[in-house]
Amino acid sequence: MAYNAKVQRGIMFFLFVMTVGLLLSNIIGNNFSKGLLYFHIIILLFSLFSFFIQYKLEIKDGYLTYQFLFIKMPFYKRVIHPYQITNIKFVRFGWSTKGAIIQINKGLNIRVFNFEPNNVFLDLLDFANQNSISIQKTKDYQILERMKET
Fold first, then answer.
1. Is-contact 83 70, C-beta < 8 A?
2. Measured in whole angstroms, how far is the alpha carbon of residue 76 from the centre of its chain?
3. CA angle 84, 106, 7 (to 5 degrees)
């Protein structure tokens, strides 16, 4: 099954607006240095490009596929087999958001957060049980599970 996530656009829009405001106030006030101007332009471009970033996670029978997409084009793709995974840790992100961290032998860990549809955690749990991967659930995550059941 395929799951998709997008960057939190509200935060990036706020960063974009704040950077434009600071850039315009420094240009209008004529009290800026070139280094600060370049810094504002870099932050502006970063926040603009981040609007188009998406993440994709596919859970198949024998492996996971994690993709980083920029304007629907794959920028980074990694196929992860069960023997490469050391642990899947289910954690709580924020006040009421579930998440998971897939810990890998070599390379960066994969953070599963804000993926849709929401049954990604059940499928990850089934994948871990089928492939005998160790699982950790934090106390906060267990509290969220109990809250969602009632």
1. no
2. 13
3. 90
What is the spatial distance between Cα 112 and Cα 91, in angstroms, rounded to a whole number?
10
Tokens of 97: 């958001």
Which ranges of the chain would DSSP assign to H, the alpha helix?
Answer: 9-29, 34-49, 120-130, 139-149
Token pair belonging to 107 = 């390379």
Structure tokens at 143: 């509290």
Q: Measured between alpha carbons, how far is 97 from 74 in angstroms, rounded to an integer?
A: 27
Which residues neighbour 33 within 8 Å (Cβ) at sequence distance 6 or greater? Answer: none
What integer pLDDT is reported at residue 150 of this predicted model? 55
CA-CA distance, 148 to 68, in Å (whole number)? 30
Which range is least confidently modeled, 25-34, 35-44, 92-101? 25-34
pLDDT tens for each residue of 59-87: 998 899 999 998 889 988 999 999 999 99
Q: Which DSSP helix (H) or strand (E) runs through 67?
A: strand 64-70
